[in-house]
Design brief:
The chain is mainly β. The chain is built from nine helices and 37 strands.
């Protein structure tokens, strides 16, 4: 066990600081392989009504996103070992159906299959259906586009007569969007709506079901418009074959009948009767424990790591120890931005070239990179296999980017660290200047609200507290505006996106990238509301809570991972704020640092009264001379000339160090830059940035 103090391996900085901690788990433990099973699907437990089938019909409405990949299963009840069951599928040649012959073993003759032979269009809605009539032994499969397209030959059917009866009975589960082979596989990519199963092969019954009626032969009809916020799939059929969703496919997505009249699924659930499945979804690895560490009663609050070594490999798995509830050990607390770490978890950037890798090897940085490993699913800054945006992120999986020595960028001026490891720049500074501090996390704050912060005089954020729930934002607002709390916002692009947590599933967050902003992908029309809680997603600014309302500054500009400096302004001499720059004679502040080479860089926040900065706020210093890569954020741009606030584009490219008082003795100090904390350790912590922050923290602790 180690305590993580400083995670930056850059030889120009203080270096890695991991302090050994005595722990009863120290020593050898056996290693073993535990697999990860990617891909989402619905799982319906075996039911007596599914046995003894002779004639049957199975079908669904689908919106394939990778129709050229396959075969993939839409609905299946399959036993690979015995070679029994059925599977309705699609592939490069359209819809297909497979029936078991009871041979098993995975040989090519263990089943009978037919295929329509008409490729499907991507992002088009189809009705597909397979029928088997035991009396005539005729097997058929059909596909029909809901909206035919000119010059597209994508409707059709295939029929064959079997020479022997199929073997349909299996004891396994029925799966939607996957098929049980040796492992669950053949994952479907796309939306599935209204899947059904009938106990007969009458085409009129199938049509009645498609028309919204209920034929007597109905065995099951899964209605995805019900309980959309849950991980349960409901069955409106007579046997109530309720199922469970595995690996979190996307819900609250538009269905085949969405007409654009209603944008919120809770108001028109029947138009959101689809689920979007992906072959690379992941919620919980489900691994078994190999050892357990119980936190000692006297373990100090801080960031720790379980250090694992095996032959030449090493990994340090981080975790937080918070103080005992209601028993703070300091009057200052660091709020770890764990929601942001989680949203970015395993971000594959496709930027790990030879130069980047060589630097990592020379510095002893983390060698497990998301660009090399998609085993543990991606971040919400990546796309799924089918090109749709990743909207959920789980912490119940290995997170390669959440390691103390993980490098993000090939930063020519510094280290190129972000998020969890970058925040150790501040943790190390606190340790070096002997500032005692407790640590809590976003998840703690969302669970417990403002009372978690009530014992503390000052709350410090990390370098990039970008993602927040309503709960965390409410707690910080109440703390500063009603409880007399002091906030030190130590980063940039904070309090930007709204996220949601699931009320029943731990460790998962949801993001809908709605409307505008600096986005990795755009949410589809009609899919701007979070499935987990029904709230409007996107920017907090679009929800009427621009970051300036809390922090006095908000996201204004983004560029490459490069840093510039701040120039002291008139506000630095304001009698209300002169103490912030006490002992600092320089006019230029922060033209140095381990992040981009300067304290003002990458993502910058500005003060703006029109967006909520209090009129009495004081701007201490503003950045300038930013590199050509920097642009004004998209939500401020109306056109190539005009901005929302009427200010020219180039004037929005800045960060403002800002201070203002709040009621009951509270105050807010914001630095407005992601790279700011990388400057704290310069010249053995003896520099203008370090002195400024020391002045503020000491005053805020009084």
């Amino acid at each position: 066990m180690v305590r993580i103090i400083h995670g930056d391996p850059n030889p120009d900085g203080p270096g890695i600081k991991l302090r050994p901690v005595e722990a009863d788990i120290a020593g050898p433990h056996p290693s073993r392989f535990q697999p990860v099973h990617l891909g989402s699907y619905a799982q319906i437990a075996d039911n007596p009504a599914l046995h003894g089938l002779t004639s049957f019909s199975v079908g669904a409405v689908i919106w394939p996103t990778l129709p050229s990949k396959g075969p993939v299963a839409v609905i299946s009840k399959w036993d690979h070992q015995s070679g029994a069951g059925f599977s309705l599928e699609i592939g490069p040649e359209g819809a297909a159906v497979t029936l078991g012959r009871g041979i098993g073993g995975g040989e090519s003759d263990d089943a009978v299959s037919i295929i329509v032979g008409k490729p499907m269009r991507r992002h088009a809605w189809y009705r597909i259906c397979a029928r088997y009539d035991a009396a005539t032994m005729i097997l058929s499969v059909h596909q029909e586009p809901l909206v035919p397209q000119m010059m597209s030959d994508d409707a059709g059917a295939a029929t064959t007569t079997l020479d022997t009866d199929p073997v349909l009975d299996t004891t396994g589960d029925l799966l939607i969007a996957a098929r049980q082979e040796r492992e669950i596989s053949r994952h479907f990519n796309g939306k599935i709506e209204n899947p059904f199963l009938l106990s007969g092969a009458d085409p009129a019954d199938v049509q009645r079901l498609f028309d919204g009626n209920r034929p007597e032969s109905l065995l099951a009809a899964w209605d995805f418009s019900r309980d959309i916020s849950s991980m349960t799939v409901c069955d409106s059929g007579p046997h109530r074959m309720v199922g469970a969703l595995v690996n979190l496919p996307a819900r609250a997505v538009t269905g085949s009948n969405w007409d654009g009249a209603e944008m919120r699924f809770v108001h028109a659930p029947s138009q959101y009767a689809a689920i979007h499945f992906h072959d690379d979804d992941l919620y919980d690895c489900g691994w078994e424990d190999d050892f357990v560490f119980r936190i000692p009663e006297d373990m100090a609050s801080g960031i720790y790591g379980c250090r694992l070594r095996c032959q030449h490999a090493e990994d340090v798995i981080p975790f937080y120890v918070r103080p005992h509830k209601g028993k703070p050990t300091s009057n200052a607390v660091f709020l770890a931005s764990t929601f942001t770490y989680q949203i970015y978890a395993n971000h594959a950037r496709e930027a790990t070239d030879h130069k980047f890798r060589e630097r990592g090897r020379l510095w002893g940085a983390a060698q497990n990179l998301p660009d090399d490993h998609s085993d543990y699913a991606h971040s919400t800054y990546n796309l799924h296999t089918d090109g749709s945006g990743v909207g959920y992120s789980s912490r119940l999986r290995p997170i390669m980017t959440m390691r103390h020595n993980f490098l993000t960028f090939d930063d020519p001026y510094g280290s190129g660290m972000r998020h969890f490891p970058a925040d150790t720049h501040l943790i190390d500074w606190l340790d070096a200047l002997e500032h005692d501090i407790d640590i809590v996390t976003d998840e703690d704050l969302d669970d417990e609200g403002v009372e978690l912060l009530a014992p503390y005089k000052v709350v410090l954020t990390g370098s990039h507290p970008e993602y927040h729930t309503k709960g965390t934002l409410d707690a910080l607002t109440t703390y500063t505006q009603e409880r007399g709390g002091r906030l030190m916002y130590m980063g940039g692009n904070g309090f930007y996106w709204r996220i949601a947590r699931h009320p029943d599933l731990p460790g998962i967050v949801e993001i809908r990238r709605a409307e505008g902003g600096i986005r990795a992908w755009a949410a589809e029309p009609g899919e701007y509301y979070n499935a987990f809680d029904g709230t409007y997603g996107g920017l907090w600014r679009r929800n009427g809570r621009a970051p300036q309302l809390l922090a006095g500054v908000g996201f204004s500009s983004q560029g490459a991972f490069e840093g510039s400096y701040f120039r002291r302004g008139a506000g630095g001499d304001d009698p209300r704020a002169a103490w912030i720059l006490e002992g600092i004679n320089e006019e230029i502040l922060g033209n140095f640092g381990l992040s981009g080479g300067g304290a003002a860089g990458f993502e910058l926040d500005r003060a703006d009264i029109r967006l909520g900065t209090p009129e009495h706020a004081v701007v201490i210093a503003s950045s300038e001379n930013h590199q050509p890569s920097f642009i004004a954020v998209l939500e401020d741009q109306l056109s190539q000339r005009n901005t929302v606030t009427g200010v020219p584009h180039n004037q929005l490219i800045r960060a403002d160090i800002t201070y203002f008082e709040t009621p009951k003795g509270g105050a807010v100090f914001s630095v407005g830059s992601i790279t700011f904390c990388g400057s704290l350790s310069h010249q053995d912590y003896k520099n203008s940035i370090s002195r400024m922050i020391d002045n503020v923290l000491r005053r805020f602790r009084e």
